[in-house]
Amino acid sequence: MRRFASEKSRIILAHRRNLYSVVQNSTSPLYPQRFSQQPHLCSSFLLRFFNTAPSPSSSSSSSSSTDSMANDYSSTPVTVDSINPKVLECEYAVRGEVVTLAQRLQQELKDNPGSHPFDEKLIETILVVTRDEEILYCNIGNPHSLGQQPITFFREVLALCDHPSILDRSETQGLFSADSIERAFQILDQIPGRATGAYSHSQGIKGLRDTIAAGIEARDGFPADPNDIFLTDGASPAVHMMMQLLIRSKNDGIFCPIPQYPLYSASIALHGGTLVPYYLDEAKGWGMEISELKNQLESARSNGINVRALVVINPGNPTGQVLAEDNQRQIVDFCKKEGLVLLADEVYQENVYVPDKQFHSFKKVARSMGYGEKDISLVSFQSISKGYYGECGKRGGYMEITGFSPEVRQQIYKVASVNLCSNISGQILASLIMNPPKVGDESYESYTAEKDGILSSMARRAKKLEEAFNSLEGVTCNRAEGAMYLFPRILLPKKAIEAAKSVNKAPDTYYVSRLLEATGIVFVPGSGFGQVPGTWHVRSTILPQEDRIEAVISLFTKFHKEFMDEFRD
Amino acid sequence: MRRFASEKSRIILAHRRNLYSVVQNSTSPLYPQRFSQQPHLCSSFLLRFFNTAPSPSSSSSSSSSTDSMANDYSSTPVTVDSINPKVLECEYAVRGEVVTLAQRLQQELKDNPGSHPFDEKLIETILVVTRDEEILYCNIGNPHSLGQQPITFFREVLALCDHPSILDRSETQGLFSADSIERAFQILDQIPGRATGAYSHSQGIKGLRDTIAAGIEARDGFPADPNDIFLTDGASPAVHMMMQLLIRSKNDGIFCPIPQYPLYSASIALHGGTLVPYYLDEAKGWGMEISELKNQLESARSNGINVRALVVINPGNPTGQVLAEDNQRQIVDFCKKEGLVLLADEVYQENVYVPDKQFHSFKKVARSMGYGEKDISLVSFQSISKGYYGECGKRGGYMEITGFSPEVRQQIYKVASVNLCSNISGQILASLIMNPPKVGDESYESYTAEKDGILSSMARRAKKLEEAFNSLEGVTCNRAEGAMYLFPRILLPKKAIEAAKSVNKAPDTYYVSRLLEATGIVFVPGSGFGQVPGTWHVRSTILPQEDRIEAVISLFTKFHKEFMDEFRD
């Protein structure tokens, strides 16, 4: 890992070089042309939106040893200059510079205890570190890594499906709840040959898709067809699949919110398309304004971009807003009118923390407006990694696709077939989250207690963090309505911005790095998600457990005050 | 599903149209140019190697209803003409026409019992059908779907890791072996926070990679580095990752054996590259001849193709040969000399059935020749889906990458990061197959009995099928040395070839369809894998359990005799 980290500056430079030559050699119209006087166009295009300064690695001092290391590979056939430039272009900012710095501090603390004004324990709060310096990133919503416990019923069913030969044993009655045993039998009956070790249908086991479709129907009050469900290893592969289907060239654009979850920018880059941004309105609680969508669409089209789809993340990541139903109706109408596929990232559908907002799926909204299967193309992404379950490591999820012709569906099916199927444990969990224990089931009470405990704790933590941010000088934070994040804006003093420039860092990266060095707390700079140029944000998860949240807040508050004292204009 | 199936002919036609226009609009040199006088170049390029006739679907009678159905989607934005042409171009033949026919027969038997000269039970032998007409494909090696049982120790550990809260309960001692409990504790200790529900490091949990690296060392007698291991959801995503890295355009070629496992052709098509074929020599037990490699490389290069990597499948799929060590050395030298990345598909490493052959990993061979980390770029793919374990549904596997510079590795790591991590159950199983119970462990005896039982039964079934094929008129079958398949050649009489032409089918597809209609047995035509033009093959798995194998053989024998009587020249 450290070997990789020490390569970062070279990579970035090579990346820039590569983009430069790509653009110089390219004759295709690249969006947005208003940046076309700049030499590295793609790079600058992303930079503008992501608001990042060129970022020499903190480990640039090792570049000479690096050079000699790289040269040793001179007799091997593959170099960064000869790999797919789309891979080079792809960025995945949530695992970027600040996390590399955190890893370095970690090692320094290990090699030299007391070398920093915080102990390893605190970084553990945020990062969770093993004896082997392996790091799990809290910059990605990863609840179990920060101490959240799995839902007992779900894990009981999973264990029984993995090892069905204990189902009939008497000891099993004492170890497992009666309804988990019954559910395991039901699920096994749905699996051909009861073989949880066999490849399934490429879309996932039909019986589990039936269960999921029934769950969607119960949620929305509109029919759902199991043949529309594609079970996937988490939501990410489903997003990639849609990007692979829709993107033919750099001229194909995908509308994405800014700020966005960087899976989208990464996937668009990997598939060679263009990210067309629309800005969420921070002043209106990160609202989606149709006028902004219209302006950006017009601008993209006038630049020769064929905008194919609109990504909406609801509840929002990293912004935490929950869309109002009215707003959703406008978005549906906009997509319908403009001929855009609506890609609805609904993985936080269970994570809503305020009484005046509710989650409504885009399919429910579209159907309630009278739009049927053949009126609008709509994909909903769901995941077992979020919600109150947070089963990130199990890699389960699905997409529900509606409004695609049989020919196009056949193509989606074919792409799914090439990877055979998603993992069966993830498939089982996806069916369980859409069909949890019901009133009267033995596990119902404990399940409800676990679920409510997790969600109400998340709501409390979100509120505490939101209040803490808003109490600080120059910090404003929208209400945490949903998802697992806060994205406060930090009004950085001019002196701080200059200090950042002098060390060649983006101002928000500089702020976050200073925070990390002073306290061991790891936030992600806003530039990883995109932000209005000239504004600076950080993303924090709400996931540290409650016994740690106060410590995080008090350390952060102390740091921020000292930072402002140092740099106040 | 049937809705999709009925679309096939339209899709194929649309596909052809689309390829045609792609090629007409293309100015890039496409390989092989000797086919450039043909209108649909890419298509014909693949067709030549895969030896398939244009294939109108058996369900073309439904195309008119299909047309009206498709038209209903006229107000939705995505059509087959506007999706990514690489998706259209991708073929995944093992789930093709014959399986569609099997599904139809299935339905007919259900609707009208006795409508075919075999009962549903037999198709179940081969396809495994549920009450819902869901079909699992034996055309893909999927042992558990055909009744193979999972290894008890592996499933015990998996269940305990899924539900660790029972580890300390007294009932657990009665239900699980002592060493499975101990192993579960060990594995949980290797997982940060013991959280099997958390995202892991993007390459997989470090402790599990340590175990796998130690397993590779024990197998090869040469060091393995856990940092070289990337755990993946089966081997397929690993193959895609390497194709994504290596392929920049149609001008980049990947050397593949013909016959090949169609994952490779599909992945190359999806990433927009060119498959450069080399033919295995059927007369020499499907041997790899260096002279063939040299000729094909020269030919590709003279056509402007930059050949970047060589795929070797050992033991072979669909061909079942195990490479001799001498031959492997020649291949390593060839890759070294020609600057090719060696992509070694070693997923059948445990499946060797003959005493005079042994599996040797390409890394072991390269290291034993004195080639070190910096001398040759080598990727080994391994999977939990094959071997004696056959855990296809768990989607686990890894690639071990050696001989890539730190900069290139950083890029591979980044692509892995975008999908966060592979599923933890699959990761755990990958560590278990590389570190099974040892002498002295409580489970050792039962584990060994299960493993040997499965492998010796596979060997017996392979031998029986091989002998049956070779006893038939006009059928020759190479020795089944390894993997899970036989790929016999069928010398089809001229009259049969003409009969196939008259119904617009490839001769091998015609033969296999007739077999299916007469007996309910599903083999895959050789055209799905590629074969020397003018030769015809079928692929059969060796996976039907022993109590069914005799029935398969006797039905097949009877069919073949009657077919030859009908068409003998």
Automatic annotation (TrEMBL), chains A, B:
Protein name: alanine transaminase
Biological or metabolic pathway of the protein: Photosynthesis; C4 acid pathway; Amino-acid degradation; L-alanine degradation via transaminase pathway; pyruvate from L-alanine: step 1/1
Keywords in alphabetical order: Aminotransferase, Pyridoxal phosphate, Transferase
Residues covered by region (Disordered): 56-76
Residue stretches of biased makeup (Low complexity): 56-75
Quaternary context: Homodimer.
Family statement: Belongs to the class-I pyridoxal-phosphate-dependent aminotransferase family. Alanine aminotransferase subfamily.
One Pfam short name: Aminotran_1_2
SUPFAM superfamilies: PLP-dependent transferases
Cofactor dependency: pyridoxal 5'-phosphate
Domain Aminotransferase class I/classII large per the UniProt entry, residue ranges: 193-545
EC number: 2.6.1.2
GO MF: L-alanine:2-oxoglutarate aminotransferase activity
InterPro entries assigned to the protein according to its UniProt record, in alphabetical order: ALAT1/2-like, Aminotransferase_I/II_large, PyrdxlP-dep_Trfase, PyrdxlP-dep_Trfase_major, PyrdxlP-dep_Trfase_small
Highest taxon in the source lineage: Eukaryota
